[in-house]
Amino acid sequence: MLSKRDNDIFTKVGPGTPMGELLRRFWIPGLLEEEVPLPNSPPVRLRLLGEDLVAFRDTNDSIGILDNYCPHRRASMFFGRNEECGLRCVYHGWKFDVNGDCVDMPSEPAESNFKDKVKITAYEAAVRGGVVWVYMGPPELTPTPPEFEWSNLPADQRSASKRLEECNWAQAVEGGIDSSHISFLHRNLADLKAESPKTLHQKYAGQDRSPSFTLKDTDYGFLVGARRSAENDQHYWRISQFLVPFYTMIPPVLVKDTDSRGSGYGGHAWVPIDDENTWTWNFSCNPHQPYPEDRRGGGLEEQLDAKYRPVRNKDNDYELSRDMQKSVNYTGIVGINTQDRAVQESMGKIVDRTAEHLGTTDAAVIAFRKRLIGLAMSLQEGIEPSEAAHGYWYQVRSASAILDNGVVFDEGAAHLLAATGK
Ligand code: FES
Ligand SMILES: [Fe+2]
Hints:
elongated, about 425 residues, binds FE2/S2 (inorganic) cluster, binds fe (ii) ion, Naphthalene 1,2-dioxygenase Alpha Subunit, Chain A, domain 1
């Protein structure tokens, strides 16, 4: 549980709020590269951390992220003309480049130097891994973007997709790091009856339905190790990553091998659109080989509309089927991502954490809150978050492994958790 004050600090992300200031110290996934595909292609609306913005790709292939509101009389730059190296407001023709400089002001006399005095807010952008990253913090503190392995792989070895989630970002992250819900929310009723498990994961997860969780702080966040009994004095470990401020990596499924060397893995980012809406990103990659053609563009289990809103959404109760809930799966809702979104949105736009009752399995949720609120309050005292300045700390993977009893999980799996390994 959190006090009302801490819940506000934790969840609010607008300019000037403690958490908003913290998140502005990080590069954040802003939009898919496909949304601004070509030089001079149409500008698109973008809302991040409560700010209305417009993104466009200019004639030189540079991406501009500008304030939505023209500094003249505040018309939306979304209606602008993407012209030779700049975006021109259609109201009176003022034109701005990707740096926010006003490069043409045809409505003023030619001898006027007014245009040299006017700027539009512009944020820096970087393209990596099919994603346009945005940095909205103080320019003098601009770090390098995080070195996620997937973002540096060739296009046929990675995928990124996003969808709208209609609630606050923090409760979505909490769903991502709360591994104990998997045995309930995502339970497939047919699995319980499976006589011969097809994978090692199914075998051990079926034998031991209440894993014990161990948390371990890292420079960039923390590890969550879920331990289940295996045979021969061994344990089956699934090791998830949480990376500040809003990333997770989910352990690969063990099929036959006794560790996840050679496997691909995936993860999420929950990027605040504003206090009440979130972009839920799915990332996946295979560092070892290209995906088969039919598995590219992963994370597409959910149908989305043109604005990346899932077709199964709160307006239709996520197409819940009570019949299916009796015989097929625990929720009666199709798809893991949809199941997650259903419960996260069901808590209300911003969950009232003064009214919750946390139990022993909520340790990761508590660690996440402590870390983020701690970083936000430290920043208020002038202490910069070192995670933002160390992009190379993010070169890690999630992992699964069968380890001998007594082995410390992050030591036994260290070679699997480093993204520099094979
Ligand atoms: S409002 Fe944009 S040029 Fe006048
Ligand atoms: Fe989930």
